[in-house]
Structures are given as structure tokens and as C-alpha cells.
Amino acid sequence: MSTTLTYTFGVNAAVSASTAEVLAAGLPADAASVKIRALSTNTGKIYVGNSDVTTAAGFELSAGDTWVSIGDYKTRIDASALYVISSVDGEDVRYEIAEYGS
Fold first, then answer.
1. Distances (CA, A) of 87 to 48, 58, 77, 97
2. pTM above 0.90, yes or no
3. Looking at domain 5-100, does it have CATH number 2.60.120.10?
4. How big is the chain by its Cα radius of gyration, in Å?
5. Domain chopping of the chain, boundaries
6. pLDDT digits 0-9 by tens, 2-12
């Protein structure tokens, strides 16, 4: 297995306050690490979790906060299963996904 990492960077702009949405389409199911950051310009909070995440049950990120999950060779992160919802319509998150190269 390669120890080289490749990275995907992106933005989920205008996160909904009414419905949980997938972080981004096409993310890998076997990521080495995932980093999600609530933009410093946000006025509300972002919540990270599974498809059933709500503003009452999710990992809370205030403006500028970062959530990180790190896997290893045996344990990978299913980035395609991460969802976000916001306490205020229109908030933004940035993400970084690291994958092991082939």
C-alpha cells in the first residue's frame, strides 16, 4: 500500500438550516483523514454527523472551529457518509479529504 497522500479540498456553500445535507457529492468511502472547518464569517453554528444529524444532535462547530477525523491503514473514514446542517441558512464549510494513493 502506498504511503503517499492525495488531497481534495472544497467548500459547501449555503448549508441549509432545515435539512441535513451530504458534505459533498463524490467523496471517498475510504479516506485517511477528514477535516471540516466552519468559516470564520459564519454567524450561526454548523453541526456534523450522519444522515440524521440535527442542530440538537451533531458535533457543533462555531465560526472558525474545525472538526478532524483521522484513520489509519486499517481504519478508514467514510467521507461520503458525513452530513452537515446549520443553525442559520446559508452558512459555509470548507473541507479537506486525504486519501492514500495507489
1. 12, 11, 25, 24
2. yes
3. yes
4. 13
5. 5-100
6. 678 999 999 99
